[in-house]
Design goal:
This protein is an all-alpha fold and 437 residues long. Helices cover 78% and strands 0% of the residues.
Length: 437
């Protein structure tokens, strides 16, 4: 006897507002991916100093150290659509100036560092605002999950899969083409954001008088630092980002000097991380059903660390590509599962500030990763940052086991469930724009 398969009910469309935000993310993510390959290629032509090249690769993360906490509170106060629009227009202007400098042979390492810092400032406000508007442009938990999944796919494909090889190809034709393309991507994003319809500002605060920005920021930071699980997750992510930034900042030298790759080969090597991340995004949910978060975090960091060690040891481009893919897969699985855990444990009333503080701590290592990696490469060898960084990740994974054991996480989840209120907002899915590792 044959049983008829139950037909899946068609899912309702996500709506025009979401499609505009999605289109904006597709455009800007592709432009960012192009720039990811082009910026270090230009830096290598301007200087051979590994320390300066590392600084160019790391400077984009420095604004999170300086502005991460107040930006989260400010975005909660302002109209998020306007914040996204202004961020796009400012980044467009910066890239127009950078393109003009490259075309006229006036580009310098200092200019690259200044431009990278300005673009990083725009990224902060755009990313936090984009996370915040997702529940507004969608309706219901399932729609929100689908929406964030599409946003995550757009970022992976643009920033890591399609963008880097395209950046290498464009750079081989003209040094200015990748930066001009990224400028146009922000202009397209700004046009789509400007066409959003609706109210994207917060409702007036329930309190008679708004507290100071400093008090609001401090509340979220204090809560995070008192929470053992989230505090440890942020700390381990900071180490992971330090190692990852050092790896990415020096990858252009590794590709040229150790692997013998050209500009296009370097772009393809970058994309291998995205291939692993793309696969990991599909495997994450099934892995989470079989492996508890504590175990997954320890195994994930260990696998990622060993893959980075392998990247530093090999001279074979194919092996290097495989190691990059393993790093991407491990990171993607951790982003989905750990990101969901962060969203679940943070109280709804202060979720934005807690997540902003968590991301700031997570990124503390990133600005120093490129500089430290450049120093190790200069003082010891080009392989040293990869080997020592990978081993550091393994040690941190093992050291964090007591705070991130399955039992500790289970108890934290039970406490969060007991403290929930019926009016709590639906959690934002992991993988939303800007969600940290």
């Amino acid at each position: 006897m044959k049983f008829a398969r139950k037909k899946k009910e068609p899912q309702p469309p996500l709506g025009s507002n979401f499609n505009k935000v999605w289109g904006a993310m597709i455009a800007s993510s592709l432009g960012d991916g192009v720039q990811l390959a082009a910026l270090p290629l230009l830096a290598v032509q301007l200087t051979s100093d590994p320390l300066l090249i590392g600084a160019v690769g790391a400077i984009g993360m420095l604004p999170w150290l300086l502005l991460g906490l107040p930006a989260g509170a400010l975005v909660d106060r302002w109209d998020r659509r306007k914040v996204m629009l202004n961020s796009d227009l400012i980044r467009f202007g910066v890239l127009v100036l950078l393109t003009a400098a490259v075309m006229t042979d006036n580009a310098t390492i200092l200019l690259l560092i200044v431009a990278g810092f300005a673009l990083g400032c725009g990224d902060i406000f755009f990313d936090i605002s984009a996370q915040s508007v997702m529940p507004v442009v969608t309706s219901g938990d399932q729609a929100l999950m689908r929406a964030n999944s599409r946003i995550s796919a757009a970022q992976i494909n643009g920033e890591q899969l399609a963008g880097p090889p395209l950046g290498g190809i464009l750079f081989s034709f003209s040094r200015s083409l990748p930066f001009l393309g990224n400028a146009l991507s922000f202009l397209i994003s700004a046009f789509l954001v400007a066409s959003l319809k609706g109210d994207f500002g917060n409702a007036p605060a329930a309190e008679p008088a708004r507290r100071s920005l400093r008090a609001e920021v401090a509340e979220g930071l204090r809560w995070l630092l008192k929470h053992r699980v989230l505090r440890t997750l942020a700390g381990t992510a900071a180490i992971g980002n330090l190692v990852f930034t050092a790896k990415m900042a020096l990858l252009v030298l590794l590709a040229r000097d150790q692997l013998g790759l050209g500009e296009i080969g370097y772009g393809l090597l970058l994309s291998s991380t995205a291939v692993g991340a793309f696969v990991g995004s599909f495997l994450a949910s099934s892995i989470a059903r079989k492996i508890q978060v504590g175990t997954m975090r320890c195994v994930g960091m260990t696998v990622e660390g060993l893959a980075i060690v392998g990247l530093g040891l090999t001279d074979n481009p194919w092996v290097a590509g495989a190691m990059m893919a393993v790093v991407g897969l491990s990171m993607s699985v951790q982003i989905v599962t750990v990101g969901s855990l962060r969203q679940r444990l943070a109280p709804a009333a202060i979720r934005g500030r807690v997540l902003s503080a968590s991301r700031l701590i997570s990124l503390l290592g990133a600005p120093f990763g490129g500089i430290l990696g450049g120093y190790l490469a200069s003082a010891i060898s080009l392989r040293a940052p990869f080997i020592l960084g990978g081993l550091l990740m393994v040690l941190v994974a093992l050291a964090s086991l007591p705070a991130l054991s399955n039992r500790s996480i289970r108890e934290a989840m039970e406490e969060a469930t007991a403290a929930e209120k019926p009016t709590e907002e639906p959690p934002v899915a992991a993988g939303a724009p800007g969600t940290p590792k």
